[in-house]
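Progress against Task 2.4 (sequence-to-structure conversion) is shown through the following example record, which the project officer requested during the mid-term review.
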Amino acid sequence: MSVDSHKLLRERVPEAPIVLLAKPLKGDERSLTIQNFHVDGELVIPLFSSEMAFRESTQGADLGPAVAIDRGLLASVLHGDEIFLLDPRLPSELRFDAVEFRQAFPEL
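Structure tokens generated for the chain above:
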């Protein structure tokens, strides 16, 4: 990944991107199960840069609970082989993987 790509990720991925949860949080539960989807034969995790991007991307469909989580928390749960789509189906869609994410945010 180039320096320009790192810069783009740092500019586009907010401090607390919105993720979809595979199941709702209950009470004082301390674990998250982030929803992933098959897109063109590939398993991806959708991220959203804002509430507006979330609504536009999902076109109002109910895809389950969505929460904003800290980038550091997101980085801490990565296995290393995840693929992300930031703002899927929008003109600003950005595809990157967990390695690129960590390289762009080495402080996490």
